[in-house]
Design goal:
alpha+beta; 4-stranded antiparallel sheet; 6 strands
Length: 116
Amino acid sequence: MKRIDAIIRPEKLQAVIKALRQIGVTGFTVIPVQGRGQQKDVRGVYRGHSYDINLHPKLKLEIVVSNSNLQPAIRAIVTAAQTGQAGDGKIFVYDVQEAYNIRTGLVDETIDELNP
């Protein structure tokens, strides 16, 4: 099993979810995050005072997939989230040794069943 952490633009979330569902990936966690990469600072004005915005709002998706579904999931995320502009995000991949179902306390082997 592999865990994919994808940092994407918030406005791309629904497109990414649709793309993942099309390949059979239905389980994921979405976390609002802020970050800094190659995207340029933005200057904002609030009540007449100017300030720099150097942390940009993003969403982090955590997805666990079978090894065979890793590349299709990555392709789906990139295709759905890509704008071609700085700030599109990053994808990180990690090994998952085991997963446990909290309800049963047993090793969860449904990852491959959910994501053929």
